[in-house]
Amino acid sequence: MSTFDNPFDPDRNLRAGCVCGQHQSAAEHEQATAMRCAPVESEEKRYEGVVASAVMRAMFPQDVARRAFLKSVGASTALAALSQFFPIQAATEVFAQAGAPEKKDLKVGFIPITCATPIIMAAPMGFYSKHGLNVEVVKTAGWAVIRDKTINKEYDAAHMLAPMPIAISLGLGANAIPFAVPAIENINGQGIVLATKHKDKRDPKDWKGLKFAIPFDYSMHNYLLRYYLAEHGLDPDTDVQLRSVPPPEMVANLRADNIDGFLAPDNICQRAIYDGVGFMHLLSKEIWDGHPCCSFAASREFITTAPNSFAALTRAIVDATAYASKAENRKQIAEAIAPANYINAPVTVLEQVLTGTYADGLGGVKTDAKRVDFDPFPWQSFAVWMLTQMKRWGQIKGDVDYKAVAEQVYLATDTKKLMTEMGLSPPASAYKSFAVMGKTFDPAKPEDYVASFKIRKAS
Amino acid sequence: MTASSLRLRAGLVSIVLLAAFLGIWHLATRSAAPVATMSPEYAKLMGLTATQGKSAMPGPLDVGAKLWEHLKRPFYDNGPNDKGLGIQLAYSIARVGTGYLLAVLVAIPLGFLIGMSPLLSKALDPFIQVLKPISPLAWMPLALYTIKDSSISAIFVIFICSIWPMLLNTVFGVASVRKEWINVARTLEVGTIRRAFTVILPAAAPTILTGMRISIGIAWLVIVAAEMLVGGTGIGYFVWNEWNNLSITNVIIAILLIGIVGMLLDQILARFTRMVTFPE
């Protein structure tokens, strides 16, 4: 479920209070709806709404009085009257700007894949400048390089695989440096692609001895592929070969027959299909619908030395993510991020990924609007799940304080506050249960979850 | 047989070889592979390789057309990740120049000192021999980790890879200056410093410059690898970026340009070498 799903959906019971998150109760929401809670078209309108309702509440601390006032004069008159003696316009501007950023010129690293869509599109589509920042998005050669450059402070923040900030914070594969994730980039949007010559080997049980590429050891791709293989009875450490290959190099390797398949971001999958070298075996959505993939990450040091820049950056990313989550914007985004300066791929390929109408490589055209989706909320239960998989596959040895690590790295509380301020509706809790290939994960019992898997690395 | 007629015939053979190469290339990439039938709706979503059986390898005409496009606007700047070929080459040359000059500044004085002392040259030889064959890519993670700056790391890698041939050649050149010349200088009671500059330096210059010529070649080899890794700017980044897009056409163009610039750099050093060479 996405944070940007229809906020007026009555089945969506994620928090106490009203559906838009601005009011104490549903009744109060109804009352104020006439004034502001209708789906807002633009950013300013939304901020204006937040400010106006705050002013209303300040002026009429008692609900009954406010309701009576609104009923008697009508919402639009109330708003007009209010503007007479309170400069809502000016207040909104001040509110939208929040604290002035300590550092305006920022560098953000990214890997050219569709997972980075919000980070990339925020530059050409002006989301960074809207929040008072001058951000240069820099294309980077691989995950290890993006990690090193972010640790070196060449980048202020970066696009990272969702498990990477956890791994860096724990000191796995690098010195332990506290990193934090204010926003998830995308959910879903990956796929398993096999070389065309394997088109009759659709059952994973026949995959013994094949070579697969994954983007990085600390990636959702690694954990999802391992999970998928293990559920089909293959031990990913002994029955197949898993290789770390930077996503952009995967298609070239598949064509050269160096690998038999890969679990990779959708634009890489689609490119393999576009060039006729592979076919889509499975969307990652079919393994776990709504899984996180990439994240937006920064070091704790950056967050403490430049908190306003960091908040503005997060706001820009959340904003861009909200824009990207709407299906009607996807075509425009595909065109914005396709040039050589950004992803550098044919527009057709990116369009197929973002709109969800795609060629499967076997002669069919499929449609799945949720093939990739965008949702910034950093669920801490995601982090707990990743930790269970790190433990399962022997990346973490010994005991793990799942909850503490998740809460330290995934900044659900801060993001929630920020999203509320922006007039969005974040979920009330940072933990949710979900199912991976039909098996339910309970974030409260991570140890039991790890123990429940038959195939795992003996520790 | 005069020299000019030989040159003429060699040029003719070169042109014939080039034409033959382009011809074979054209023929080899022209043929279309058989294509599976597909619905028009599906075909619209697919690339040319899949729909028309177009070879994944571009032909010489594709490359020529693309090259012309690049040459028409070599200095465009579409943001930090997409710049014209001229700008990319300038970045690479600047990096190579910086790293190489630093290497020259260290290698030649150091080589001079080592060459003048047989003891030092023997003692340091094993270290130099071990450090010399290390690939630039092996240095890169270490440099990134310790220097903590990718552009300085790239320059450091050029420096560390291009220093050894110069150092070795300087040591060798200085050590093998004819004993008679040094003895003559000594008989004339020439001071050490004056001896180094007026006798040893001119005598060792051709060998030193040969070392410098080998080094510039290595530096140019290294820059492409280093830029592919650290990214951002430069011709190596361009190759990597176009490889991501599987644009073999642009990769071939970059290869061609890398070759031409490398040749020019080599020719410049060759000219210097000729200037200091003396007949014995």
Written description of the protein model:
Chain A is of the alpha/beta class and 459 residues long. Among the domains of chain A are: 72 residues, no CATH class; 189 residues, D-Maltodextrin-Binding Protein, domain 2 (3-Layer(aba) Sandwich), CATH 3.40.190.10. In chain A, the strands form five sheets. Chain A has a five-stranded mixed β-sheet with strand order 2-1-3-11-4, with helices on both faces. In chain A, helix 1 packs across helix 2. About 3% of the residues of chain A have low confidence. In chain B, 79% of the residues lie in helices and 0% in strands. In chain B, helix 10 packs parallel to helix 11. The mean pLDDT of chain B is 87. Chain B has a domain of 138 residues: Orthogonal Bundle (MetI-like fold). Chain B is elongated, with a radius of gyration of 25 Å. Chain B contains twelve helices and no strands. Chain B is mainly alpha-helical. At the A-B interface, strand 2, helix 8, helix 11, helix 12 and strand 12 of A face helix 2, helix 7, helix 10 and helix 11 of B. Chain B: Keywords: Cell inner membrane, Cell membrane, Ion transport, Membrane, Transmembrane, Transmembrane helix, Transport. Chain B: This is Nitrate ABC transporter, permease protein. Chain B: It comes from Bradyrhizobium niftali. Chain B: Probably part of an ABC transporter complex. Probably responsible for the translocation of the substrate across the membrane. Chain B: It holds the Pfam family BPD_transp_1.
In short:
The complex is a heterodimer of chains A (459) and B (280). Chain A has helices at residues 26-37, 43-59, 63-73, 75-85, 88-97, 117-121, 127-130, 143-151, 164-170, 220-231, 250-255, 266-274, 300-305, 307-324, 330-337, 347-355, 380-392, 402-409, 412-421, 446-451; strands spanning 105-110, 134-139, 157-161, 179-184, 186-188, 190-195, 211-214, 241-244, 261-265, 278-283, 294-299, 357-359, 365-367, 372-374, 434-436, 439-441.
